[in-house]
Give the backbone structure.
Amino acid sequence: MSAAPTQGTRPPGGGAARSADRGNHASTPRADNLRAANAAAAARVAAALTVLRRAAAEQAPAALASSFGAEDMVLIDLIAKNALPIGVFTLDTGRLPEETHALIDRVRSVYRIDVDVRFPEATAVERFVGANGVNAFYESAALREQCCAIRKTQPLARALAGKGAWITGLRREQSVTRREVAVEEFDMTHGLAKFNPLADWTRDDVWAYLRAHHVPYNALHDRGYASIGCAPCTRAIEPGEDERAGRWWWESADRKECGLHRRPVSVPVVQASVSNPA
């Protein structure tokens, strides 16, 4: 019969077992980096949710203006999965890519949420096209801004009428025109609080979230489109280009806004009053 181990001695194999156990939980640079990345991602999501909850609670009714780009899909996923009382609306300019329409339908199906689609006034579009041509926006910045005002800025004003908070997917990294974007600000044009929960997120942060949470996104992103707007005013970008280089690429970088987030020069923004349907 084998003698029992005396006090102060290790049972046979005990040291090896403990060494193996330590090996299984050993800290490596790769494991440390992964844990740090996961912790940072969780912190970003928690911060964005805090902003969304504050907008919903303190500035109701709150609404997300979605173009169904990558950033907006992060916000839709957070709003839907956390059942936040935040509406979602989009501006159908009449010139959107088919891929955007397909994503709108998919969002309705996957998340079971309503998407309020706003359109430009048909008579205003008819007058503009009749006077300037269907693609007048290529001719000058002034005509492009007029087109954006009719198809986007004016419908936005109508959509925001009566809202307490406007939520967007703006990020500082997107372009030179957005480097000063704050997480929370007051929009003087529409007279309401504006929240940008992803202001300090990077493009990589956005796509890490989409992949980790299996969020649907616009198929054009897989074809090199970093920012997606109207079909004739959007192209894929080249390696090394600014994320919004594909928007109105014939204009200078400091003008790459449609007027939703920067009032176009000489184009008035009129917030039309809306009445509730009977």
